[in-house]
Amino acid sequence: MWNWPRQIKDSITQKTTGLMRMQFWRDAVEGIYCDNPPHQPIATELWRAVKRHNLTKMWFMKIIDEREKNLDDRAYRNIQELEKYAENTQTALLYLTLETLGVRDVHADHAASHIGKAQGIVTCLRATPYHCTRQKVFLPMDICILHGVSQEDFIRGKQEKNVRDVIYDIASQAHIHLEHVALDDYLCNVRKVDFNIFHPSLQRKSTLLPLHLYIRSWKKTY
């Protein structure tokens, strides 16, 4: 349900259209918390979830505000900016998930913060080959500059060592945050192909992931 802010960016050709849609959802959230949601299926379900689980309005607004900033279609200036984006989108969504499950605990929130940041970084890495096919690169500019790599190098699919070094540095930052089964699986696979982000094996979904998640859940190890 909460994928729609991300889908807005992928479905528009003009920023103005994206801004209008974001404003619609900002107004929708305001209406939801005034018991006056718009007549729209997703908004109606969100209103029901808010009423049932007493969800925090701030997390919804953080997601919308951050996704709106991201409509600019520019690379992150540094890894900290990428982490901030992840914190206000992925982590905020995890906070809402915890509230939906009735979990309001400072330790769970701390774990969610790290998971969200790691997930945001991994998502940026995984999406890089796709973005390159659209002539776009969003990887942190400071790390690219450090290794003398241009956006054009990624768009052309270059696989030289300095390009792989960029991926290594970014992946290392994700690894610092958390070794979580679904995320660490991807990071391990990146390491196996020597940080070649364009390697075909990284584009395949893990068929064993559900089994890994089940085993971790059964053992209560995350």
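(the above was protein one; protein two follows)
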Amino acid sequence: MLPPGALRRPLAAAARLARARARPQVLASLATGPRQNNSIFYEIRTYDIKPSKMKEFVEMVNKYFHLRTAHSELVGFWSAELGAMNKVFHVWKYDNFAHRTAVRHALANDKDWQGKFISPALSLIEKQHNEVAYLVPWCQLGKPPKEGGVYEWVTFQMKPGGPALWGEAFRAAINAHINTGYTKLIGVFHTEYGLLNTVHVIWWNESPDHRAAGRHSAHEDARVVAAVRDSVRFLESQQNVLLIPLQCSPLK
């Protein structure tokens, strides 16, 4: 005869397994969320420049960066004005990973690029960082209505789960700001390599003062307030930087 409880233990284990199977789960394939319907991605590069060398670095970029853009498409190149110091941001567009590999190989063998820019520039740079990101599927890369404004780069660290978890609420918050009309959306990027669950949003404004006035007005708009309150439940942290486009930047 079986001891008391011997039959109950397998039954309890089976019940726990059934409950676990019944729980909704976020599949790994959904964790990064939907993407654009193509293989295009963007490499986001940030360089910390030695404080005493920032002017020299910018001059070198403006003088020689045509050697780099001969190999692949530059989306934008900016220097930080507020929120960071002695830092530059640049974004590159690639058709796929094979395209990037071919470009990197060509650059390594480009004697003009290596000799005129890379060799002297390395001594000016303190730190380099890169990420790979996709545009979210509901966003197309935008352009400013005119030249001469400033850019705001906002980085949101979201809770794990990807756009499958927070995408709808985040999109509503972005659209609420767009609908106020004070700012122009350039792009919304979600990381694939680098710190995951990171979203970078690039905005264009006529000036820092125009942005400040628009933000003040937006924060008094009940629709914006409601959308932001709904989205922040998925937010872990955020940071922003005011950027000035360099002479070589396609986005000016």
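Reviewer note on protein two: Helices lie at 8-22, 28-31, 54-69, 97-108, 111-122, 163-180, 208-218, 222-231.
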